[in-house]
Design brief:
Layout (H helix, E strand, L loop, with lengths): L2 E5 L6 H8 L11 E2 L2 E2 L5 H5 L2 E4 L10 H6 L7 H10 L3 H6 L17 H15 L3 E5 L7 H15 L3 E5 L10 E6 L2 E6 L1 H7 L2 H9 L3
Parallel strand pairs: 1-6, 1-7, 4-5, 5-6
Antiparallel strand pairs: 2-3, 7-8
Length: about 210
């Protein structure tokens, strides 16, 4: 149920950690435990079902919005898909489309904004109902109004779940426990105020972002 943010410069190892957690490749030494079991004892399919992922660039498929959301849970009914879309703040804009939930991504939907596409992927993650969520700066490159909707949807998505945020904008992770990576190693850990007081790497990153 914790909210953990991973921060660091490009190449620090943020994406590597996520790839190791989901076993896109295995560790060469040590162990990663999920519920005190080594993740290598799980079948890859079962392990990956434990994770829901919302990436910075929304991953959608050339099929209907309904089927794109249902991809998170293939057995879901239309009603369950629509409920997930409502929880993700996506229902209203989908209903305004000419073919609504039957709009095909890449045809009529090619006018969807990046934020609207992101809300569809969040609806998919809500439907999947995985116990651990991985979010890669899901609010980047969207307008303020859509960013607010995405943040509300993420709050719904992460409630009661372990959440791992890959953070680029430090202003979005103030309520998280923060892990600071540098050159593939953990350099600092703590909450926002604690790390600022250390006057270390995180402090320098934060000062750079706020233009101080």
């Amino acid at each position: 149920g914790t909210r953990v943010a991973i921060v660091g410069s490009t190449g620090a190892g943020k994406t590597t950690i996520i790839s190791l957690l989901t076993r896109f490749y295995d560790i060469s030494s040590g162990s990663i435990l999920l519920d005190v079991e080594d993740i290598r004892s799980y079948r890859r399919k079962d392990l990956r079902n434990c994770f829901g992922v919302v990436l910075q660039d929304a991953a959608l498929f050339p099929m209907s919005i309904l089927e794109n959301i249902r991809y998170g849970k293939p057995s879901a009914t239309d009603e369950e898909v629509i409920a997930a879309a409502k929880s993700a703040n996506a229902h209203d804009f989908i209903k305004r489309l000419p073919n609504q939930y039957h709009t095909i991504i890449g045809s009529e939907a090619n006018t969807l904004s990046q934020g609207e596409k992101q809300l569809i992927t969040i609806a998919r993650a809500i439907l999947a109902n995985a116990p651990i969520m991985i979010l890669d700066e899901a609010t980047s490159s969207v307008d303020t109004r859509t960013e607010r909707k995405i943040k509300e949807a993420i709050k719904t998505l992460t409630t009661g779940r372990t959440s791992i945020f890959i953070a680029h904008r430090l202003s979005t992770i103030r309520d998280c426990y923060i892990i600071v990576l540098e050159k593939g190693e953990i350099a600092e850990m703590g909450y926002h105020e604690e790390l600022l007081e250390k006057q270390g790497i995180y402090h320098r990153m934060y000062q750079t972002q706020i233009g101080a």
